[in-house]
Amino acid sequence: MSGLLLNNIASLYDPRDGERSGPLSILIEDGVISCIGSCAKIGNGVEVVDCSGLLAIPGFVDCHTHLLFAGSREQELYMRAAGRPYLEILESGGGIHNTVASVRAASEEELFGNGMRYLDQALTLGVTTVEIKSGYGLDFTNEEKMLKVCRRLDEAHPVDVVPTFLVHTVPKDRDRTDYLHEVEKRMIPAFRSLADWFDIFLEKGVFSLAESERLIEAAKREGYHIGFHTNQVNDLGGVGLAVRCGARHVNHLEVLTDEDADLIRRTDGLYPVFLPAAEGFVFSDHVGQFHKVRDLRERVVISSDFNPGSSPVLSPLFIITYTVLRYRADDPRLLINAYTANPAEMLYLSDRGRIAPGKKADLVLLDLAAVDQIPYLGTFDVIRYVIKNGSLADTGHQRKK
Ligand code: NIG
Ligand code: FE
Q: pLDDT confidence of 2, banded at 50, 70, 90?
Protein backbone atom coordinates (compact mmCIF):
# COMPACT_ATOMS: atom_id res chain seq x y z
CA MET A 1 0.00 0.00 0.00
CA SER A 2 1.21 3.54 -0.74
CA GLY A 3 0.01 6.38 1.40
CA LEU A 4 0.19 10.10 2.03
CA LEU A 5 -0.86 11.93 5.18
CA LEU A 6 -1.51 15.65 4.86
CA ASN A 7 -1.26 17.08 8.35
CA ASN A 8 -2.32 20.36 9.97
CA ILE A 9 -4.35 21.62 7.00
CA ALA A 10 -5.72 25.03 8.05
CA SER A 11 -9.01 24.64 6.15
CA LEU A 12 -10.55 22.80 3.23
CA TYR A 13 -13.33 23.47 0.76
CA ASP A 14 -15.46 20.72 -0.73
CA PRO A 15 -17.88 21.82 -3.48
CA ARG A 16 -20.79 19.83 -2.04
CA ASP A 17 -20.14 19.81 1.72
CA GLY A 18 -18.63 23.29 2.01
CA GLU A 19 -15.84 24.53 4.24
CA ARG A 20 -14.18 22.92 7.25
CA SER A 21 -11.72 24.63 9.53
CA GLY A 22 -8.67 22.86 10.83
CA PRO A 23 -6.28 21.79 11.88
CA LEU A 24 -7.34 18.80 9.80
CA SER A 25 -5.57 15.89 8.25
CA ILE A 26 -6.32 13.99 5.07
CA LEU A 27 -5.16 10.40 4.70
CA ILE A 28 -4.72 9.07 1.19
CA GLU A 29 -4.35 5.35 0.52
CA ASP A 30 -3.67 3.95 -2.93
CA GLY A 31 -4.61 7.21 -4.60
CA VAL A 32 -7.96 7.56 -2.83
CA ILE A 33 -8.98 9.77 0.11
CA SER A 34 -9.64 7.40 3.02
CA CYS A 35 -10.01 9.77 5.99
CA ILE A 36 -10.61 13.47 6.64
CA GLY A 37 -10.36 15.03 10.09
CA SER A 38 -8.08 13.40 12.64
CA CYS A 39 -6.37 10.63 10.76
CA ALA A 40 -3.62 8.48 12.15
CA LYS A 41 -0.59 7.39 10.20
CA ILE A 42 -0.93 3.70 9.41
CA GLY A 43 2.28 1.84 8.65
CA ASN A 44 5.67 2.76 7.29
CA GLY A 45 4.81 3.37 3.65
CA VAL A 46 3.03 6.62 4.50
CA GLU A 47 4.68 9.92 3.63
CA VAL A 48 3.71 12.78 5.94
CA VAL A 49 3.44 16.35 4.64
CA ASP A 50 3.01 19.36 6.88
CA CYS A 51 0.28 21.60 5.47
CA SER A 52 0.03 24.17 8.23
CA GLY A 53 -1.38 27.46 7.05
CA LEU A 54 -2.68 25.93 3.81
CA LEU A 55 -6.15 25.74 2.25
CA ALA A 56 -7.06 22.48 0.45
CA ILE A 57 -9.36 22.44 -2.58
CA PRO A 58 -10.00 19.71 -5.19
CA GLY A 59 -7.72 19.52 -8.24
CA PHE A 60 -9.12 21.48 -11.16
CA VAL A 61 -10.99 19.69 -13.94
CA ASP A 62 -10.43 21.69 -17.13
CA CYS A 63 -13.22 20.37 -19.33
CA HIS A 64 -12.74 22.40 -22.53
CA THR A 65 -9.28 22.76 -24.03
CA HIS A 66 -7.48 22.59 -27.35
CA LEU A 67 -4.22 21.82 -25.51
CA LEU A 68 -2.65 19.75 -28.27
CA PHE A 69 -1.21 21.86 -31.08
CA ALA A 70 1.97 23.00 -32.76
CA GLY A 71 3.20 26.50 -33.51
CA SER A 72 1.95 29.70 -31.93
CA ARG A 73 -0.19 32.62 -33.07
CA GLU A 74 0.77 35.62 -30.96
CA GLN A 75 0.57 37.96 -33.98
CA GLU A 76 -3.19 37.32 -34.18
CA LEU A 77 -3.56 38.62 -30.62
CA TYR A 78 -2.16 41.98 -31.73
CA MET A 79 -4.25 41.93 -34.92
CA ARG A 80 -7.34 41.47 -32.77
CA ALA A 81 -6.12 44.13 -30.34
CA ALA A 82 -5.89 46.46 -33.33
CA GLY A 83 -9.52 45.72 -34.18
CA ARG A 84 -9.68 42.70 -36.52
CA PRO A 85 -12.49 40.34 -35.51
CA TYR A 86 -11.66 36.71 -34.67
CA LEU A 87 -14.03 35.33 -37.33
CA GLU A 88 -12.63 37.62 -40.02
CA ILE A 89 -9.10 36.31 -39.39
CA LEU A 90 -10.49 32.78 -39.72
CA GLU A 91 -12.42 33.60 -42.93
CA SER A 92 -9.31 35.10 -44.50
CA GLY A 93 -7.52 31.76 -44.03
CA GLY A 94 -5.71 32.46 -40.75
CA GLY A 95 -6.72 31.57 -37.21
CA ILE A 96 -7.51 27.86 -36.85
CA HIS A 97 -6.05 27.27 -40.36
CA ASN A 98 -2.63 28.49 -39.20
CA THR A 99 -2.56 25.90 -36.44
CA VAL A 100 -3.80 23.24 -38.88
CA ALA A 101 -0.76 23.89 -41.08
CA SER A 102 1.58 23.56 -38.07
CA VAL A 103 -0.11 20.39 -36.79
CA ARG A 104 -0.03 18.74 -40.22
CA ALA A 105 3.69 19.54 -40.48
CA ALA A 106 4.46 18.16 -37.02
CA SER A 107 5.35 14.51 -36.50
CA GLU A 108 3.44 12.47 -33.94
CA GLU A 109 6.49 12.63 -31.67
CA GLU A 110 6.71 16.44 -31.87
CA LEU A 111 3.03 16.73 -31.09
CA PHE A 112 3.42 14.33 -28.18
CA GLY A 113 6.34 16.40 -26.83
CA ASN A 114 4.25 19.58 -27.04
CA GLY A 115 1.37 17.88 -25.26
CA MET A 116 3.64 16.64 -22.45
CA ARG A 117 5.04 20.14 -21.91
CA TYR A 118 1.60 21.76 -21.75
CA LEU A 119 0.37 19.03 -19.40
CA ASP A 120 3.37 19.72 -17.14
CA GLN A 121 2.23 23.34 -17.05
CA ALA A 122 -1.36 22.30 -16.38
CA LEU A 123 -0.36 20.15 -13.40
CA THR A 124 1.83 22.90 -11.96
CA LEU A 125 -1.18 25.21 -12.17
CA GLY A 126 -3.38 22.72 -10.30
CA VAL A 127 -5.17 20.98 -13.19
CA THR A 128 -5.46 17.24 -12.52
CA THR A 129 -7.91 16.26 -15.29
CA VAL A 130 -8.08 17.85 -18.70
CA GLU A 131 -10.27 17.41 -21.75
CA ILE A 132 -8.40 17.83 -25.05
CA LYS A 133 -10.04 18.31 -28.43
CA SER A 134 -8.71 17.34 -31.83
CA GLY A 135 -9.73 19.74 -34.60
CA TYR A 136 -6.38 20.99 -35.87
CA GLY A 137 -5.85 18.13 -38.33
CA LEU A 138 -8.92 18.53 -40.54
CA ASP A 139 -8.17 15.40 -42.52
CA PHE A 140 -8.41 11.74 -41.59
CA THR A 141 -4.70 11.17 -41.01
CA ASN A 142 -4.09 14.26 -38.92
CA GLU A 143 -7.28 14.09 -36.83
CA GLU A 144 -6.38 10.47 -36.11
CA LYS A 145 -2.82 11.53 -35.26
CA MET A 146 -4.15 14.07 -32.75
CA LEU A 147 -6.52 11.63 -31.08
CA LYS A 148 -3.85 8.94 -30.86
CA VAL A 149 -1.51 11.43 -29.22
CA CYS A 150 -4.26 12.34 -26.72
CA ARG A 151 -4.50 8.64 -25.79
CA ARG A 152 -0.73 8.38 -25.41
CA LEU A 153 -0.66 11.53 -23.25
CA ASP A 154 -3.28 10.02 -20.96
CA GLU A 155 -1.06 6.98 -20.48
CA ALA A 156 2.23 8.85 -20.17
CA HIS A 157 1.31 11.85 -18.01
CA PRO A 158 -0.11 11.92 -14.46
CA VAL A 159 -2.85 14.34 -15.55
CA ASP A 160 -5.88 12.40 -16.84
CA VAL A 161 -6.78 13.26 -20.43
CA VAL A 162 -10.30 13.04 -21.87
CA PRO A 163 -10.07 13.13 -25.71
CA THR A 164 -12.78 14.72 -27.87
CA PHE A 165 -13.21 14.48 -31.63
CA LEU A 166 -13.83 18.09 -32.68
CA VAL A 167 -15.13 18.98 -36.15
CA HIS A 168 -13.63 22.46 -36.07
CA THR A 169 -14.03 23.95 -39.55
CA VAL A 170 -13.90 22.98 -43.24
CA PRO A 171 -10.25 22.79 -44.36
CA LYS A 172 -9.11 25.30 -46.95
CA ASP A 173 -8.16 22.58 -49.43
CA ARG A 174 -11.49 20.70 -49.47
CA ASP A 175 -14.91 20.93 -51.05
CA ARG A 176 -17.48 21.47 -48.29
CA THR A 177 -19.92 18.74 -49.36
CA ASP A 178 -17.15 16.17 -49.76
CA TYR A 179 -15.64 17.05 -46.40
CA LEU A 180 -18.93 16.79 -44.52
CA HIS A 181 -19.53 13.44 -46.20
CA GLU A 182 -16.11 12.17 -45.13
CA VAL A 183 -16.58 13.36 -41.56
CA GLU A 184 -19.96 11.65 -41.34
CA LYS A 185 -19.21 8.38 -43.07
CA ARG A 186 -15.54 7.80 -42.27
CA MET A 187 -14.16 9.90 -39.43
CA ILE A 188 -17.05 9.71 -36.95
CA PRO A 189 -17.22 5.88 -37.05
CA ALA A 190 -13.44 5.38 -37.15
CA PHE A 191 -12.57 7.73 -34.28
CA ARG A 192 -15.10 6.26 -31.85
CA SER A 193 -12.40 3.90 -30.55
CA LEU A 194 -10.20 6.92 -29.78
CA ALA A 195 -12.72 9.36 -28.27
CA ASP A 196 -15.91 9.16 -26.20
CA TRP A 197 -16.85 12.79 -26.87
CA PHE A 198 -17.92 14.67 -30.01
CA ASP A 199 -17.83 18.44 -30.53
CA ILE A 200 -18.55 20.79 -33.46
CA PHE A 201 -18.10 24.57 -33.91
CA LEU A 202 -21.63 25.82 -34.63
CA GLU A 203 -21.10 29.40 -35.78
CA LYS A 204 -21.90 31.70 -38.71
CA GLY A 205 -19.38 31.00 -41.47
CA VAL A 206 -18.20 27.77 -39.81
CA PHE A 207 -20.92 25.07 -39.48
CA SER A 208 -24.62 25.82 -39.87
CA LEU A 209 -27.37 24.50 -37.60
CA ALA A 210 -28.40 21.88 -40.19
CA GLU A 211 -24.82 20.70 -40.76
CA SER A 212 -24.18 20.52 -37.03
CA GLU A 213 -27.38 18.58 -36.41
CA ARG A 214 -26.54 16.10 -39.15
CA LEU A 215 -23.06 15.38 -37.77
CA ILE A 216 -24.22 15.31 -34.16
CA GLU A 217 -26.89 12.76 -35.07
CA ALA A 218 -24.23 10.65 -36.83
CA ALA A 219 -22.02 10.90 -33.74
CA LYS A 220 -24.89 9.91 -31.47
CA ARG A 221 -25.53 6.81 -33.57
CA GLU A 222 -21.93 5.80 -32.86
CA GLY A 223 -22.45 6.35 -29.14
CA TYR A 224 -20.40 9.53 -28.56
CA HIS A 225 -21.37 11.93 -25.78
CA ILE A 226 -22.13 15.35 -27.21
CA GLY A 227 -20.90 18.79 -26.12
CA PHE A 228 -20.35 21.64 -28.54
CA HIS A 229 -19.22 25.21 -29.28
CA THR A 230 -22.23 27.46 -29.78
CA ASN A 231 -23.58 30.98 -29.20
CA GLN A 232 -20.06 32.46 -29.23
CA VAL A 233 -20.51 35.29 -31.70
CA ASN A 234 -23.95 34.52 -33.17
CA ASP A 235 -27.03 32.68 -31.93
CA LEU A 236 -27.93 30.11 -34.60
CA GLY A 237 -30.24 28.04 -32.40
CA GLY A 238 -27.60 25.91 -30.72
CA VAL A 239 -29.30 25.61 -27.36
CA GLY A 240 -32.47 24.21 -28.95
CA LEU A 241 -30.31 21.74 -30.88
CA ALA A 242 -28.50 20.73 -27.68
CA VAL A 243 -31.83 19.95 -26.03
CA ARG A 244 -33.15 18.06 -29.08
CA CYS A 245 -30.05 15.90 -29.35
CA GLY A 246 -29.58 15.31 -25.62
CA ALA A 247 -26.21 17.06 -25.49
CA ARG A 248 -24.35 17.07 -22.20
CA HIS A 249 -22.88 20.56 -22.54
CA VAL A 250 -23.03 23.82 -24.49
CA ASN A 251 -19.94 26.04 -24.57
CA HIS A 252 -19.27 29.81 -24.88
CA LEU A 253 -22.83 31.21 -24.49
CA GLU A 254 -21.86 34.82 -25.03
CA VAL A 255 -25.16 35.45 -26.79
CA LEU A 256 -27.98 33.72 -24.93
CA THR A 257 -31.62 34.72 -24.87
CA ASP A 258 -33.64 34.55 -21.67
CA GLU A 259 -35.70 31.78 -23.28
CA ASP A 260 -32.61 29.68 -24.01
CA ALA A 261 -31.29 30.30 -20.50
CA ASP A 262 -34.61 28.97 -19.17
CA LEU A 263 -34.37 26.01 -21.52
CA ILE A 264 -30.94 25.17 -20.09
CA ARG A 265 -32.30 25.57 -16.58
CA ARG A 266 -35.19 23.20 -17.29
CA THR A 267 -33.03 20.57 -18.99
CA ASP A 268 -31.54 18.35 -16.32
CA GLY A 269 -28.21 16.97 -17.41
CA LEU A 270 -27.34 19.89 -19.74
CA TYR A 271 -24.35 21.89 -18.48
CA PRO A 272 -23.63 25.50 -19.52
CA VAL A 273 -19.86 26.01 -19.95
CA PHE A 274 -18.39 29.52 -19.85
CA LEU A 275 -15.01 30.44 -21.31
CA PRO A 276 -14.26 33.97 -20.11
CA ALA A 277 -10.63 34.06 -21.26
CA ALA A 278 -11.72 33.28 -24.83
CA GLU A 279 -13.93 36.37 -24.61
CA GLY A 280 -11.17 38.60 -23.32
CA PHE A 281 -8.47 37.47 -25.73
CA VAL A 282 -10.73 38.03 -28.77
CA PHE A 283 -11.92 41.41 -27.44
CA SER A 284 -15.49 40.19 -27.69
CA ASP A 285 -18.28 42.75 -27.58
CA HIS A 286 -20.37 40.17 -25.75
CA VAL A 287 -20.01 38.92 -22.23
CA GLY A 288 -20.80 35.29 -21.32
CA GLN A 289 -24.35 35.17 -19.95
CA PHE A 290 -23.22 33.55 -16.72
CA HIS A 291 -25.65 35.50 -14.55
CA LYS A 292 -28.63 33.95 -16.35
CA VAL A 293 -27.78 30.43 -15.15
CA ARG A 294 -25.69 31.04 -12.05
CA ASP A 295 -28.44 29.61 -9.87
CA LEU A 296 -27.52 26.17 -11.28
CA ARG A 297 -24.94 25.69 -8.53
CA GLU A 298 -24.17 22.10 -9.41
CA ARG A 299 -24.26 22.58 -13.19
CA VAL A 300 -22.59 25.84 -14.12
CA VAL A 301 -19.06 25.28 -15.45
CA ILE A 302 -16.05 27.44 -16.33
CA SER A 303 -13.00 26.36 -18.27
CA SER A 304 -9.83 27.77 -19.81
CA ASP A 305 -10.57 26.92 -23.49
CA PHE A 306 -6.76 26.84 -23.68
CA ASN A 307 -5.73 27.08 -27.35
CA PRO A 308 -3.15 28.96 -29.43
CA GLY A 309 -5.71 31.43 -30.81
CA SER A 310 -8.58 32.66 -28.72
CA SER A 311 -7.26 31.66 -25.27
CA PRO A 312 -3.55 31.19 -24.64
CA VAL A 313 -4.18 30.63 -20.92
CA LEU A 314 -4.14 27.49 -18.78
CA SER A 315 -4.23 28.84 -15.24
CA PRO A 316 -7.50 28.10 -13.39
CA LEU A 317 -6.63 30.63 -10.71
CA PHE A 318 -6.25 33.32 -13.36
CA ILE A 319 -9.48 32.24 -15.07
CA ILE A 320 -11.34 32.33 -11.74
CA THR A 321 -10.08 35.84 -11.04
CA TYR A 322 -10.98 36.92 -14.56
CA THR A 323 -14.47 35.40 -14.21
CA VAL A 324 -15.12 37.71 -11.26
CA LEU A 325 -13.97 40.70 -13.30
CA ARG A 326 -15.71 39.86 -16.56
CA TYR A 327 -19.00 38.48 -15.23
CA ARG A 328 -19.15 40.41 -11.95
CA ALA A 329 -19.34 36.96 -10.38
CA ASP A 330 -19.53 37.56 -6.65
CA ASP A 331 -19.49 34.02 -5.27
CA PRO A 332 -16.01 32.46 -5.11
CA ARG A 333 -17.42 29.12 -3.89
CA LEU A 334 -19.56 28.82 -7.00
CA LEU A 335 -16.48 29.43 -9.14
CA ILE A 336 -14.57 26.63 -7.41
CA ASN A 337 -17.55 24.30 -7.92
CA ALA A 338 -17.63 25.35 -11.58
CA TYR A 339 -14.00 24.28 -12.06
CA THR A 340 -14.01 21.05 -10.00
CA ALA A 341 -17.06 18.94 -9.03
CA ASN A 342 -19.39 20.34 -11.69
CA PRO A 343 -17.18 19.62 -14.72
CA ALA A 344 -16.21 16.25 -13.19
CA GLU A 345 -19.86 15.22 -13.04
CA MET A 346 -20.46 16.70 -16.48
CA LEU A 347 -17.74 14.44 -17.91
CA TYR A 348 -19.19 11.43 -16.02
CA LEU A 349 -16.12 11.42 -13.76
CA SER A 350 -17.87 11.58 -10.40
CA ASP A 351 -14.91 9.83 -8.76
CA ARG A 352 -13.18 13.24 -8.56
CA GLY A 353 -13.67 16.97 -8.10
CA ARG A 354 -14.43 16.61 -4.37
CA ILE A 355 -12.60 16.33 -1.09
CA ALA A 356 -14.54 13.44 0.38
CA PRO A 357 -13.77 9.89 1.51
CA GLY A 358 -13.69 7.46 -1.41
CA LYS A 359 -12.88 10.16 -3.99
CA LYS A 360 -9.72 10.24 -6.05
CA ALA A 361 -6.99 12.12 -4.20
CA ASP A 362 -6.55 15.01 -6.66
CA LEU A 363 -5.91 18.08 -4.52
CA VAL A 364 -4.38 21.54 -4.55
CA LEU A 365 -2.96 23.17 -1.42
CA LEU A 366 -2.93 26.93 -1.50
CA ASP A 367 -1.12 29.40 0.70
CA LEU A 368 -4.29 31.42 1.25
CA ALA A 369 -6.31 32.08 4.39
CA ALA A 370 -9.78 31.44 2.97
CA VAL A 371 -11.80 30.61 -0.17
CA ASP A 372 -12.69 34.30 -0.48
CA GLN A 373 -9.01 34.99 -1.17
CA ILE A 374 -8.84 32.66 -4.20
CA PRO A 375 -10.04 35.15 -6.83
CA TYR A 376 -8.56 38.02 -4.86
CA LEU A 377 -4.95 36.88 -4.38
CA GLY A 378 -4.96 33.76 -6.55
CA THR A 379 -2.69 35.17 -9.23
CA PHE A 380 0.15 35.32 -6.71
CA ASP A 381 2.44 32.31 -6.33
CA VAL A 382 0.12 30.51 -3.90
CA ILE A 383 0.10 26.90 -5.09
CA ARG A 384 2.21 24.98 -2.56
CA TYR A 385 1.33 21.38 -3.43
CA VAL A 386 -0.53 19.64 -6.20
CA ILE A 387 -1.51 16.04 -5.48
CA LYS A 388 -2.54 13.76 -8.33
CA ASN A 389 -3.78 10.24 -7.64
CA GLY A 390 -2.37 10.55 -4.13
CA SER A 391 1.15 11.48 -5.25
CA LEU A 392 2.82 14.82 -4.77
CA ALA A 393 3.39 16.35 -8.17
CA ASP A 394 6.70 18.01 -8.86
CA THR A 395 5.47 21.54 -9.42
CA GLY A 396 8.72 23.26 -8.52
CA HIS A 397 6.82 25.17 -5.87
CA GLN A 398 7.19 22.93 -2.84
CA ARG A 399 8.18 24.58 0.36
CA LYS A 400 11.86 24.61 1.14
CA LYS A 401 12.33 22.89 4.48
O1 NIG B 1 -13.07 27.63 -28.48
N2 NIG B 1 -14.31 28.76 -31.26
C3 NIG B 1 -13.68 27.89 -31.80
N4 NIG B 1 -12.59 27.25 -31.39
C5 NIG B 1 -11.70 27.68 -30.37
C6 NIG B 1 -10.57 28.51 -30.90
C7 NIG B 1 -9.61 27.73 -31.69
C8 NIG B 1 -8.51 28.55 -32.29
O9 NIG B 1 -8.64 29.76 -32.52
O10 NIG B 1 -7.47 27.92 -32.55
C11 NIG B 1 -12.43 28.35 -29.23
O12 NIG B 1 -12.40 29.58 -29.07
FE1 FE C 1 -12.96 25.87 -27.72
A: confident
